[in-house]
Amino acid sequence: MKQTIYLLRHGETELNLKGRYQGELDSPLTIDGIEQVKNNAKLLKVLIDNPSEWEFFSSPLGRAQQSTDIVCEVLGYNKSKVIIEDRLKEVTVGKWAGLTTKEIKMSWPELMENSNNYNWYFNSPNGESYDSVVIRITEWLYSIRNKKKVIVMSHGLTGRVLRGFYQGLTKDQALSLDVSQNTFFKLSDKKVESFCSEYDDFY
């Protein structure tokens, strides 16, 4: 059986705009964020055949739920059918939730040393490890192995880990993947294809 997964990220939030890390904190979408989700949904609608044939999974976090509601409205998808999946939530950043990179560097300089622009997130006190994220993503992918058509609403960092694992990338390769909120991804046959709603002419 050939499986196709469309992986989306929530739109820009107020905390995104302020450069603050959210983790499991929450923040409403900005006006731009709402438009990003609408545009992604319009492009997705062009790419899939009958939305009712697809199974829709979403992170339980508010920003993902708000984005899911928008996608359902654009697709004409019954949002009561959306499956809330805890394993799709964003990576927990512990005591760093709500802080900027500058604030983190000032308070925990030793935890930022010997790190790079990507893997430092996983040094956070009381935060989630990369391996634990891989485990929950792996378990979720295994649980949907018999589902042919899947739509997913998740998050930036979790989405990176998911795509990296799917393609068999190393940790550093996975964490350097694009997380633009104008882009979503098609996962099929161990390959990942990106679709950018900012530039595609789909109206």
Protein described:
The chain is α/β, with parallel strands linked by helices and 203 residues long. Helix content is 38%, strand content 15%. A 6-stranded mixed beta sheet has the order 3-2-4-1-5-6, with helices on both faces. Helix 2 crosses helix 3 (62-75) and helix 6 (130-143) packs across helix 7. The chain is globular. The two termini are 32 Å apart. The model has no long low-confidence stretch (mean pLDDT 92).
What is the gist of this entry?
The chain is an alpha/beta fold and 203 residues long.
Keywords:
38% helix, Rossmann fold, 203 residues, six-stranded mixed beta sheet, single chain
Layout of helices and strands:
Elements: E1 4-9, H1 14-17, H2 31-47, E2 55-58, H3 62-75, E3 83-84, H4 101-107, H5 109-112, H6 130-143, E4 149-154, H7 156-167, H8 171-175, E5 183-188, E6 191-196
Parallel strand pairs: 1-4, 2-3, 2-4
Antiparallel strand pairs: 1-5, 5-6
Helix pairs in contact: 2-3, 6-7
